[in-house]
Amino acid sequence: MTHARVSRKVPPSLSLDLDLALAGTTALFGPPGSGKTLFLEILAGFAVPDAGRVLLDDTILFDAESRVNVPPRRRRVAYVGRQDSLFPHMTLEQNCTFAAQRFPRLERHRRVTEILERLQLAQWAKARPGDLTEAQKLRGAVARALATEPKLLLLDERDFDEALLREIRTGGNIPIVLVTGDLNLCCAAADTLVLLDGGRIVQRGAPREVMDHPDSVEAARLLGIANLLQGTIAALDPGRNTSRIEFESFSLNGPYLPGHFRGDQIWVAIDAHDVRVHRADLAAPLNSVPAQLTRVSHRAHTVELEFAGPLVAEISREIYARERDNKSWQLEFPPEALKIL
Amino acid sequence: MPFHWTSVGIATAGAIVLGLALAYVLAIFDLRIVSFTLVPLLAIPPVILAALRWHRALPYAALAAGIVSGLPFVALITARQFRDIDRAYGDAARSHGASEWRLFWRVLLPLAWKTIGFATALAFARIATEWAIAANL
Question: Which site among A51, A86, A278, B83 is 20 to 30 Å from A243 CA-CA?
């Protein structure tokens, strides 16, 4: 079992209780200052919490009560920090050999060669970090970390990509804790997504599950869901599996909400991607609301439209090209897009 | 008394070894008081002179005095350099299973060697000057 329950009172304060899977990737996602890096440092042994206990594979790494604090070098937790830390005076191969020190000589050489090959760094083995690009340095740092054969791999916020994470995993199922600000990467490569804010866990679960069903306003904000509306349940119909929610200036139809009553105050989150836009003089589809366009912002692949309210819709360039000349707009919120918090 | 190259060499070597050890301690524990007491040590000009005069019979006293006059250069300058080496390197080495000893020899020393060379040159010059003066008394 790998488990961390730690708290720290001095700022940056932290209070976490987290089970880590024995295999697979756990992604930590949160705004700056939410305690992601601090948590990694606690796991690695560079920061000391006030209270709690850290278990790795049933081995106690830290226990405040019995005053156990295993030094970083004995933890077998490899930490790839946010800063580039390949030793500049050694070649990439020497860097890895340095980390593989605890293996016998022949084994060490074999391991390092194998890892450099796996991470596609074989041709750079004799290069010094100064001659490598940022991406290669990052791969090098990961290679060095893997050379220690860690029981847990900590990856702090850097430009990790899906391919690199896949290559790490082909060599064995080392559990990974990944700090990232990239939700796409979380969905693509993580098995568990943990949302952190202010040193606390806001929500955790499978990435898809968390993305589709944020369970609090805070989680929805962290996930960047643009439309957050507070409303009152006006009607509930379990027979037809529908509900009616009233907001300040309009009302929407949603799916039936088990566990809620009429008159309940609820928050509704609607992803900007799920909002559809139409010309106002068109026959109104279900859940349509007239809206006043205030701002148009062009993105790489989409166009973001901001309406008075504020309500935000993110539509494809193609749809925008079709709708751009609208004099007045209406927004359609498909009932299945309503996420009830 | 003739100018004694061997003694100057040994005194310099002693100043480097002790100075590096002290520098490492200073860099890790940030001992301001020790750093401040090293500065006046630099300002005692006639260490070797005095040692030679009072202990003419004891060659080691002169050697020790030489080490004392060279040591602050190495310790203070190198400690500064050790502290300027990014913490990320130390953290990386430790989390990859390196002992403090290994970290010192394989990471800190190679990264700081230019500064250590510079500090050594200063220490050597200082020791040699004092010895030269003492030898011509």
Answer: A278
Query: CB-based contact (8 Å) between A115 and chain B?
Result: no
Greatest distance between any 2 Cα atoms in chain A: 77
Number of CB atoms found within 10 A of residue A291's CB: 22
Kind of pairing, strands A227-237 and A265-270? antiparallel
Residues from chain A contacting residue B89 (CB–CB below 8 Å): 85, 87
CA distance A57 to A4: 11
Closest CA to A22 of A173, A187, A170: A173
With beta carbons less than 8 A apart as the criterion, state whether A78 and A149 touch: no
Q: Which two tokens stand for residue A286?
A: 């279900």
Q: Which of B95, B106, B110 sits opposite A44 (nearest CB)?
A: B95
Structure-block tokens of residue B37: 């007491």
Rounded to a whole number of angstroms, the CA Rg of chain A reads 25
Q: Name the token pair of B96.
A: 């990859």
Contacts of B43 (CB under 8 A, 6+ apart): none
Quick one: tokens of B51?
């040692």
User: Residue A83's closest chain B neighbor by CA?
Assistant: B88
DSSP assignment, residue A122? G
Distances B35 to A158, A228, B25, B39, B115 between C-alpha atoms, Å: 38, 58, 11, 7, 18
Q: What is the pLDDT of residues A149-161, one digit of tens each?
A: 999 999 998 888 8
Token pair listed for A177: 């804790």
CB A99 within 8 A of CB B97: yes
Q: Which residue has the tokens 């697979």?
A: A24
**Cβ neighbours around A22 below 10 Å, total:** 14
* Contact criterion met (CB < 8 Å) for A148 and B96: yes
Block mean pLDDT (10 aa), chain A, length 341: 81 79 85 88 90 88 90 91 91 93 91 92 92 93 93 90 89 88 90 90 91 90 90 86 86 84 88 88 81 90 88 90 86 87 82
Task: Concatenate the DSSP letters of all residues of B81-109 into one string.
Answer: HHHHS-HHHHHHHHHTT--HHHHIIIIIH
Q: What is the pTM of this model?
A: 0.85
For residue A340, list its beta bridge partners: A268
Identify whether the C-beta of residue A90 lies closer than 8 Å to the C-beta of residue A124.
no
Any chain B CB within 8 A of the CB of A327? Answer: no
As a whole number of angstroms, the distance between CA A312 and CA A275 comes to: 8
